[in-house]
Write a structure and sequence with these properties.
The protein has 108 residues and is mainly alpha-helical. 96% of the residues lie in helices and 0% in strands. The termini are far apart.
C-alpha cells in the first residue's frame, strides 16, 4: 500500500513538471521568434543604410565625373585656341616633344 501511495504522490509532480516543460517550450519558441524578428529588423536597417550610402557615393562620383569632364573640355578648348593662334609654334613644340620621346624610347 505504501508503494501505491508513493505513485499517487508522484503523479501530480509529474503532470506539473510536464506542464512546466510545455510552458518552457512555448517560451523558448516565443524567444526564438523574437530573436529572429530582431535579426531581420537589424538586417533590414543595415541594408537600407548600405543602400543610402551607395546612393550618396554614386551621386558624389557623378559630380566628380561632371567636374572632370568640364575641366578637360576647358583644357582642350584652351589648347585648341593656342594652336589656332600660333600654329607654327605648336607644330615645332609637337615635333620637339616627339623627338625627345623617341630618344627616350631608343635608350631602352
Amino acid at each position: 500500500m505504501a508503494a501505491r501511495n508513493d505513485d499517487a504522490d508522484k503523479t501530480p509532480d509529474t503532470s506539473r513538471l510536464e506542464a512546466d516543460i510545455d510552458q518552457l517550450k512555448k517560451d523558448l519558441k516565443k524567444l526564438n521568434d523574437t530573436l529572429v524578428g530582431l535579426g531581420r529588423d537589424g538586417f533590414d536597417a543595415v541594408q537600407s543604410e548600405g543602400h543610402a550610402r551607395l546612393d550618396a557615393l554614386r551621386k558624389e562620383a557623378d559630380d566628380i565625373a561632371k567636374r572632370l569632364k568640364s575641366t578637360g573640355q576647358h583644357q582642350y578648348d584652351a589648347l585648341e585656341a593656342q594652336v589656332q593662334q600660333k600654329p607654327l609654334l605648336s607644330l615645332l613644340a609637337a615635333f620637339g616633344l616627339g623627338l625627345i620621346i623617341s630618344r627616350v624610347i631608343d635608350r631602352r
